[in-house]
Fold this sequence. Notes:
Layout: E1 4-7, H1 14-25, E2 28-31, H2 32-40, H3 44-67, E3 72-75, H4 84-91, E4 96-100, H5 103-112, H6 126-133, H7 137-143, E5 146-149, H8 155-165
Parallel strand pairs: 1-3, 1-4, 2-3, 4-5
Helix pairs in contact: 1-8, 2-3, 4-7
Amino acid sequence: MKGIILIGFMGSGKTTVGKLLAEKTGMQHVDFDEQLVIELGMTIQEYFGLYGEKAFRDQETKLLKRYIDHEQIISTGGGIVLKPENRQLLKQLAPVVYLKTEPETFLSRLKEDQENVRPLIISKTAEEIQEIFEPRIPFYEESASLIIPTSDRTPESIVQEILEKI
Length: 166
C-alpha cells in the first residue's frame, strides 16, 4: 500500500487518526507540525511571530516535497492547502484523505486542546475561526481523493472507513 496523506482543518483529528492508521498498517507516521517544530528549532507560534505565515507555508512546501513519495502516514498542517503549489502536489498523490469536520466539532476539540497553541486562532472567537475555515473548504475538497466525515465519530471508526475505501 502506498502512503496516506491526511488533510483537514485544525482539530479535525489528523494526528490522532494518523497515529491509529500507522498502527493498523505498520507504516511510519509523520506529523508535519511536529516535524517542523523539530526542524525549525522552535514552536510554530514562535516561527510565525518571527517570520510570518508566508515563510511558514514555504517550510510546509519543502517538507511536503521531501516526504511526498514515502510509504507512510502523513498528518499535514491545517493550512497546507492554502498554497496552490501544495494543492498541485497533493493532487498527484493518492490517497489524500480530507477529514471533513463540522465547525462545532473542531471548535470543541480546539477549546479542549490547550497543549497545541495554534498561531492563527490565538484569542479568536468561534466566528473568527470559522471565517478562517470556510475559504479553505474548496481547497480541501479539490486536493482530496477521499472525503471522510469525522464529526460525532470515534477515531477507530474513521480509520476503519479509510482502510475500507482505499
